[in-house]
Design goal:
Blueprint lengths: L10 H21 L4 H22 L17 H9 L8
């Protein structure tokens, strides 16, 4: 049975935050001036942190699956198609 205290699924957000912050620090040491790549990694770290925080607090999206059946064919639509059908075989 599943352990309700098991948060191993949340590890992906934690490691993503760490990876993007480390990459950002590496870029800062390498370039010593603001770059677009640094801004990208900061933004990704922020997004991953927010997802990690939301999942950890239990306020994340509830994943559900639902199926909707399409409505049956309408007789009026069928009649309209039959009446307005163009015969392309006439030549």
């Amino acid at each position: 049975m599943d352990n309700p205290n098991d948060n191993s699924w949340n590890l992906k957000w934690l490691t993503s935050v760490q990876d993007h912050l480390i990459e950002c620090l590496s870029q800062i040491r390498k370039h010593r001036h603001p770059t677009q790549e640094q801004a990208y990694h900061l933004a990704k770290a922020r997004d991953c942190f927010n997802s990690w925080k939301m999942d950890y607090e239990g306020m994340g999206w509830v994943k559900t699956k639902s199926e909707h059946q399409l409505p049956p064919k309408v007789i009026e639509q069928q009649k309209h198609l039959e009446e307005n059908q163009i015969d392309i075989s006439k030549d």
